[in-house]
Amino acid sequence: MSETVESVSALIIQKLLANPKVPRDIDGNCKIMEDLAFDSLAVMNFVMEVEDSLDVSVPLDKLADIRTINDLAACIVDLKNKG
Amino acid sequence: MTSLFSKFEGLAGALGSIVTAGGRNPFAVVIEKPLSSTVGIIEGRETLLFGTNNYLGLSQSKRAIEAAQAAAATYGVGTTGSRIANGTQSLHRRLERQIADFFKRRDAMVFSTGYQANLGMISALAGKDDYLFLDADSHASIYDGSRLGNAQIIRFRHNSPDDLYKRLKRLDAPNSAKLIVVEGIYSMTGNVAPMAEFAAIKRETGAYLMVDEAHSFGVLGENGRGAAEAEGAEADVDFIVGTFSKSLGTVGGYCVSDHPELELVRLNCRPYMFTASLPPEVIAATGAALEDMVAHPELRQQLMANAAQLHKGFMDLGLNASTRVSPVIAVTLETVEQAIPMWNRLLELGVYVNLSLPPATPDSRPLLRCSVMATHTPAQIEQTLAIFHQAAVDCGIPMQANAA
After folding, report:
1. Residue B400, Cα to own-chain centre: how many angstroms?
2. Cβ of B152 under 8 Å from any chain A Cβ?
3. Which GO molecular function annotation, any one, does this entry have (chain B) (predicted)?
4. Domains in chain A: how many in total?
5. CATH number of the domain encompassing residue B387
6. What domain range includes position B179?
7. Residues B266 and B362 grouped into a single domain
8. Are B74 and B52 in a shared domain?
9. What three-state secondary structure class fits B58?
10. Which of B6, B166, B228, B270 is buried most deeply by CB count within 10 Å?
11. Is A73 helix (H, G, I), strand (E, B) or coil?
12. B153 touches chain A (CB under 8 A)
């Protein structure tokens, strides 16, 4: 697998910035719910978009432990490596 | 010291602004007295009820009321125990047989609420090594059941068989059982599941299929067995769950299945085991309401005719109503700032509907959710449409002519 936490994190940030409501100065350490003001439904819908870009499914129970963009990236890389 | 309630500060602010914007709390409406299935007294005024789930009007069924009275007189008003202890009376078993026979299934389990039916079945069936595939717009009870059972949860895009198929194929877990959960009619939008397509995917992938017919039981299908019957997909549905609190007008939930293991689920299902069973009068009323429903298929025809009338009226007014005609018709507004005054104005003019605000709505826009009843008269529907028009004008809601 070619994805790294850095590359996945960059892709997530790129997708987030496509949403004009998201602050422009986000980085991998931003907390998705607190810093981006996403509610739980918005997080789940956003993760679905990332899943389709990377051809991976993130089980919802994994989301409970994810706070930051880098956490999400690490989780996805882990899932891809297992696959 | 952190307050336990500090987490509610955001909610308190949101509720405060809703009340300030509209003058009342939309989540604390009191129906002082129902006068019939379609009219109730709210704030001292006779109000048309277009926001109940009483699709067939059977909450006021004479047969059900008399059955409840007789059962209370004979059996008392409560069971004081769980279904697996002292809370199963002959009435409970009889109702389970009646529900199973109605659905032409081997057996049925009756739960104390519809919420508990989903909570119980999903948590009992899907454990931590199993995968649940949930429609993204699933009801809270489905999500909560998933968490209670610790299953691996994968969401697929709402009503999209293609997306479900893609996600099933993507998963590399040959040794895990997979359960797909969909709803017959989605409660907020009235969208109907493409059951035949979901059934085909279930057959191809070897997953199990559960459908929640809470809002479609008694409403869809020639015999009222729901969306699966309407699309000829019943043979592929492993579990049907639902509620008595909509079409049958009482309260309680059920699951029907041909799998003989349902008997074992009774002993592995916390929301079934650790709560008191339904009281005799509710069980008796539910059985009588089901008899009423079976005896009066014309109620279902009238319901769909009424839904078509309301839907056409919304289209003619230029309001943004759901595309498909079903007894749940949601009018979508663009902003919460439009929805709150509009909902309040409707109530002042004499129509009660449900105000649904994001994130409880699918696409972050607010909904005025209307539900139609078989017992609404054409005149009541016309009056409601006139009031919607008046309220939209009063609140400055844009109405574009729809190219229907």
Report:
1. 30
2. yes
3. transferase activity
4. 1
5. 3.90.1150.10
6. 61-295
7. no
8. no
9. helix
10. B228
11. helix
12. yes
Question: For residues B232 and B223, is the Cβ–Cβ distance under 8 A?
Answer: no
Contact of A44 with chain B, judged by CB distance below 8 Å, is answered with yes
- Residue B268 one-letter amino acid: N
Report the gap between the CA of A30 and the closest CA in chain B (Å). 21
**CA dist., res. A48 & res. B291, Å (int):** 44
Evaluate whether residue B230 is within a structural domain.
yes
Residue B385 inside a domain? The answer is yes
Scan residues 363-382 of B and list those with Cβ closer than 8 Å to A.
364
Report yes or no: B13 and B6 within 8 Å, Cβ to Cβ: no
Q: Which of B260, B295, B330 is the last residue of a domain?
A: B295
In whole angstroms, give the CA distance from residue B309 to residue B382: 8
Across chain B, what does the average pLDDT equal?
Answer: 95
Residue B339 contacts residue B357 (beta carbons within 8 Å): yes
Number of other CB atoms surrounding residue B15 within 10 Å: 15
Q: What is the pTM of this model?
A: 0.94
CA distances, B57 to each of B38, B49, B116, B329 (Å): 8, 11, 23, 17
pLDDT for residue B403 is more than 60: no
The phi, psi pair for B239, rounded to 5°, reads -140, 130
Q: What is the pLDDT of residue B317?
A: 96
Please give the order of strands across the beta sheet that includes B354-356: B328-332, B367-371, B354-356
| Shared-domain flag, residues B40 and B166 | no
| Residue A58, domain extent | 3-80
Give the integer Cα–Cα distance in Å for B367 and B133.
Answer: 26
Question: What is the per-residue pLDDT across B304-318, written as a single tens digit (0 to 9) for each?
Answer: 999 999 999 999 999
What burial class does residue B298 get, using C-beta atoms within 10 Å of its C-beta: 0-12 exposed, 13-18 middle, 19+ buried?
Answer: exposed
Domain end, chosen from B240, B268, B295, is at B295
What CATH number should be reported for the domain holding residue A9?
1.10.1200.10
